[in-house]
Amino acid sequence: MRFIYTKAFGIFFACLALVAILVFLQTRGLLDPVRKAALSAPKPVAAVISGVVSPIKFFFVTAYQLHKIVDENTELRIKVANLEQNLVQYNQQIRENEALRNELGFVKYSKLQLIACTTLSRDAFVLSDSLILNCGSADGVQEGQAVISQGYLVGKITYAGKTTSNALLAVSSKFSTDARLSQTNATALAVGSFGSGLILDQLAQTQNLQKGWQVVTAGINQRIPKNLLIGEVGDMLSSGSDLFKRASVVSPIDFDNLEFVFVVK
Amino acid sequence: MKYLIYFLAIIFLLGINIGLFGHIPFYGQIPNLLLLFACFFAMEKQSYDGFYVCLLAGLFLDFFSTQFFGGFTVAFLSLGLVLHLMFNYFLAMEVNWKMLGGVLCAVLILFYGSLWIYGFLVYKFNLAHSYLSLADYSRNFLPALVYNLLLMYPIYIFYETLQEWVGKLLIRQRGVIK
Hints:
The structure holds two protein chains of two kinds. Helix content of chain A is about 35%, strand content about 30%. Chain A is an alpha+beta fold. Chain A folds into two domains: about 40 residues; about 150 residues, Thrombin, subunit H. Chain A has a six-stranded antiparallel barrel with strand order 1-2-5-4-3-12. Chain A has a six-stranded antiparallel β-barrel with strand order 6-7-8-11-10-9. The radius of gyration of chain A is 23 Å and the shape is globular. Chain A starts with 6 loop residues before the first helix and ends with a strand. Chain B has one domain. Chain B is about 75% helix and about 0% strand. In chain B, about 40% of the residues are buried. The chains are: A alpha+beta, B mainly alpha. Chains A and B meet through helix 1, helix 2, helix 3 and strand 2 of A and helix 1, helix 3, helix 4 and helix 6 of B.
């Protein structure tokens, strides 16, 4: 036991004391500038290497997925044709809606208030599927607020520092939010799933569920507004004997390469 | 001077970790080059540089982490202390390449274990809203072990080269070589 009195232990405890001081400073938000500097320190090296690796990766990934892309293309052409038809109907409905609102004297609904944020980094070593954003409480970011990208829900704020914040990605196994099927208004739960994206869970067996239906937020959670797109229903994961219906939710967002996101106030 | 070189080496490895290996995940995992780098320092006999490298590497990872601050630093320092004690007081023989797989396995268990304990404690003291469970860590364990094992030798070469440079630089500074 003589090694307890050695220099190594002395250095170890001195380092621990330093860490304790840093933790205290971090909880007070005083380490935010240091954190920003530390996050940008390896960026020149990472940017140079990434600039070389990204095109190579893109080439091989594209070559590997070529047959899949052809199928997807056909599928998308059909979808675009359907959507164009829906758009005409939708525009007609908007005009009708506007006319009716004017007639009834309704106040026009307010649009979402968004805070533009840039991703500083992804969680080191992908342990928790989170992002570090360059906006914080000084910009109006609060814990629990929704994070969107291209109109789709991609996560929610788990920690809001003064100038930076952490966002838990929707594909994280720790993520869950209330959801609704836009076609039937049936409420369910959208949960992240380790390695397999998003899952629509807790949908009553009596409810209809079809592939391609859109999943949106239900608005039960006050911090996450209603009708934010989450994705569309993919494959069914439950059988008839299960208590609830489950299905995968397909989001078009590339969660690995999120650079710019919006926090919904 | 040598501490500045170690600092720059850590930034360089972090840049490679994010810029290169961030694009090539293996079962969702990317290697932890800083862990390997710090381990080689901690295994050095009669040297305390390992603690400096562990502290710095841990702090960098904490800044990059979205978990409660300090977890990586404490895990790195604990690892540094255990490895230092093992290699200075208990282990009589030299580590060879056959043993390295076992050493890395033990290192990862200790590293993830320390991270989990720290996360659990800060959660229990209401300092964090959540913590990663042991199941989360164990799911990542095997891919992380394989990936880190593959990169152990290149990092060892980098470490050896760096030590050689530092050695030469120190001799030059003392004026032995002109």
